[in-house]
Amino acid sequence: xxxxxxxxxxxxxxxxxxxxxxxxxxxxxxxxxxxxxxxxxxxxxxxxxxxxxxxxxxxxxxxxxxxxxxxxxxxxxxxxxxxxxxxxxxxxxxxxxxxxxxxxxxxxxxxxxxxxxxxxxxxxxxxxxxxxxxxxxxxxxxxxxxxxxxxxxxxxxxxxxxxxxxxxxxxxxxxxxxxxxxxxxxxxxxxxxxxxxxxxxxxxxxxxxxxxx
Length: 213
Known about the structure:
213 residues, 8 helices, 40% helix
């Protein structure tokens, strides 16, 4: 079922990560931000409701759609009280799930800050205008997606695998230097000589965007 859901969402243009346990999801959320979470209550180990409660206690406000075979009113109430934003009992139509994900995704995007800023680097996420120290920087569409991803993850180290999946929407080829090439392009445009270096390389792991200590 999870594979069908993943393929249906990807066919509609969504970038999808699939985690097979609540523990894996909570671990991923420490390094990655998502627009929507589709969460099955019937998970191995920590079930979906407990996972949701732990997620909300940790301050994660990402919209959550609960999936479950439990269709009784009291079960729905428990899910909503635990912090769910929507509830879809099984069996369901994939088209309805996609529509609900899209609706919650719009709400999530609208809640994001319009301007992202690190030091004197700013990104307007509406106009996609990038400036540093008053200087406007022209970026390609892919360069912009990479920069926005790193800025939303500022202070954290982003692995090459996570970057490729988030920015290019396909699985990572360990032999590819695609990420390194695009990071160099951004460095050349943003970290010009005389500027504080914001792009940081963590050898063997990936990259982060932060103000040097």
